[in-house]
Amino acid sequence: MLRDILRLNPPSEFFLEKYLDDLAFIDWILACLGNQNGGINEFDYVSDTEWQFSQLLTEFSLESSPFSPGIFPEIHEQITSLRLNSEARRKILEESDIPAELTRAEPVVSSAELNGLLGG
Questions:
Q1: Measured between alpha carbons, how far is residue 118 from residues 18, 32, 114 in Å?
Q2: What is the predicted pLDDT for the residue at 103?
Q3: Looking at 59-119, which runs of residues are DSSP E strands?
Q4: Distance from C-alpha of 4 to C-alpha of 95, rounded to nearest angstrom
């Protein structure tokens, strides 16, 4: 949903604070999920979600983004912090006992494709 909002090019004065709150919430949830001891399926979901989050942060940071740190330099530090958190969690996932191909694999079905398949 957040990726879709970026594509709509919303007026930043209306959405910037909410968008940053949503990114912080996702970061917090991923930190909580990373602390749980789940099986392969849970690991796969967390790994995929972490990868999607990393991609979202990249899209958010692009100059073409309506919330670009070039336009809003005050958010650069927050986005950098979120990116570092994500990288640390991905490194922990890579160092876990789960097979390496699962930790590095990109999702087979993108979120847009999944929404299309589910009729969303």
A1: 27, 27, 6
A2: 45
A3: none
A4: 32
